[in-house]
Amino acid sequence: MKAKKILSLILALVMMLALCACGGKDAADTDTGADTETNADTSVDAGTTENTETENNTDADTTDETEAEPVEIIVFAAASMTETLTTLGNIYMEQNPNVTIVFNFDSSGTLKTQIQEGADCDIFISAGQKQMNQLDITADPAVNTDGLDFVITDTRFNILENKVALAVPEGNPANINTYDDMVAGLKDGSIMLAMGNSDVPVGQYTQKILAYYELSEEELAGAGSITYGSNVKEVTTQVSEGTVDCGIIYQTDAFSAGLTVVDTATAEMCGQVIYPAAVMNVSKNVDAAKAFLEFLTSDTADTVFEEVGFTPVA
């Protein structure tokens, strides 16, 4: 019996040792698995960080590549377009932050001369065909007498039509309501008319109107019945200030100045008032200039032009 007890104790001891050995192995395996998972997580985190950094670098490179270069567009335009083009220029620059548009507004004759003499200009918009033709080598040599070549021919088009209007000061003190009234007042010397100089389109249209009514500009000027302005804005100012009884301007300028238009000239009286536009071959930014001209034929531009009395024709 004593031997059996001793044998039982030995067997129990062997089983306990075996169990301890198995438990130690399992614990070791568990620890190794945890380490493996930790290493795997660390590896994933590192890879994610590298990918994120790569994506960020790619985004930065893309931003740098797509950011548009700054560009300046110089636009020479008839004075009668001052308000509308200023508005449209601001709209365009808001839509295209890299673009700066610089305007030079004056009489078309003055602008033509400035371009001819070497002024920086990307776009020219004239209030008459004559001034554009004088810069266009493809125009009639009888008009382009100096053989000037500044117009990129395939960019030239007619953009707007205007009307030659008879405007009066506030209250219309001379009671002029038609061109016929103007003619009667000029003939009897009872009124003063403001008109543009002969080298600006509005003055040239006025000369045609006077000729239509068989009036002598020279005689009227000699009698003190006519005053002049170097561009349409100067004529408009004379009417607004009431220093004359009436003035012949564009209906768009009358609208912008808040003047009353009592009559508009027909095509028979002075022809159509068409504004041509073109990119100049001295432009340093031809593509940008073309893009802005295209914008000026958009629905947005048409709305702005029509609000003041222009008729888009492009």
Task: Provide a descriptive summary of the structure in words.
It is built from 12 helices and 11 strands. By secondary structure, it is α/β, with parallel strands linked by helices. The protein has 2 domains: 132 residues, D-Maltodextrin-Binding Protein, domain 2 (3-Layer(aba) Sandwich), CATH 3.40.190.10; 101 residues, D-Maltodextrin-Binding Protein, domain 2 (3-Layer(aba) Sandwich). Strands 2-1-3-10-4-11 form a 6-stranded mixed sheet. Strands 7-6-8-5-9 form a 5-stranded mixed sheet, sandwiched between helices. The longest helix has 65 residues. The radius of gyration is 41 Å and the shape is globular. The N and C termini lie far apart (124 Å).
Keywords for this structure?
314 residues, alpha/beta, D-Maltodextrin-Binding Protein, domain 2, 2 domains, 6-stranded mixed sheet, 5-stranded mixed sheet, 11 strands, disordered N terminus
What's the story with the biggest beta sheet?
6 strands, mixed
* Beginning-to-end CA distance, first to last residue: 124 Å
CATH homologous superfamily grouping of the largest domain: Periplasmic binding protein-like II
- Tell how many strands the DSSP assignment holds: 11
Shape: globular
Strand content: 15-25%
Q: Provide the number of structural domains.
A: 2
